[in-house]
């Protein structure tokens, strides 16, 4: 029987090795309670199933206007449920458009321990605990490096520095012009085995696979059971205001493939193995 067990173990190792070579892709499951999308985004009373929105945000069947292109607007939409999954991926699809050459202020995607409604960071609360991904349209520090996309982690103690566009606070970022694109812009955030990857689709084509990696970081520890949110804000300059329209927010939980099956498999055969040894002992 020891040989049998060895075969199972070797088989598992082989399966695992084959999967490792063919890129260890996680299995994805759509999480409808943490997602929103058209064409029937709202219910008859104007509310969004499983989400809460507020400030200047206006929800319709097709999209959520998180802010209209007027001065000093703030809006947000937050999941009502927390995310219990250890590994996950979200894809936000949105349009940021305005008549000015320069826009303001920007849009943020959040994953935080609390719903950060109504705050100074692109419509979200400062000193958040978790992840903020910012689409910063306005060049506050005059470094000619906006529009800019950045990731900032916070443990609830740091205040976002608008004056420097958070330059020294970012985990990483990339220069991307995300305003006034022919197709919606998409941001995909994957958090898998403590690696955080932010990919951006720049809205120049309608090919859903046209993503480019903007930030990838290992050893990132995000809190469990956080809320997802999207917020936006405009500024005080009449000539630099944008519509921030969220088209969809899609969440998938991710699970590690094969290894789990192998553990069950080897545990099962291990028990059979042990059981037969016991019988042999009795004989
Ligand atoms: Ca800025
Ligand atoms: Ca700047």
TrEMBL record:
Gene3D superfamilies for this protein: 2.60.120.200
Position of the signal peptide: none
GO molecular function term, any single one: D-mannose binding
InterPro entries (alphabetical): ConA-like_dom_sf (IPR013320), Intracellular_Lectin-GPT (IPR051136), Lectin_leg (IPR005052)
Bilayer-spanning residue ranges: 254-277
Keyword Ligase found: no
CDD domains for this protein: lectin_ERGIC-53_ERGL
PROSITE patterns: L_LECTIN_LIKE
Bilayer disposition of the protein: Single-pass type I membrane protein
GO biological process: endoplasmic reticulum to Golgi vesicle-mediated transport
Subcellular location: Endoplasmic reticulum-Golgi intermediate compartment membrane
A single GO cellular-component term on record: Golgi membrane
Residue ranges of domain L-type lectin-like in the record: 28-254
Name the record gives this protein: Protein ERGIC-53 isoform X1
Gene: LOC106172155
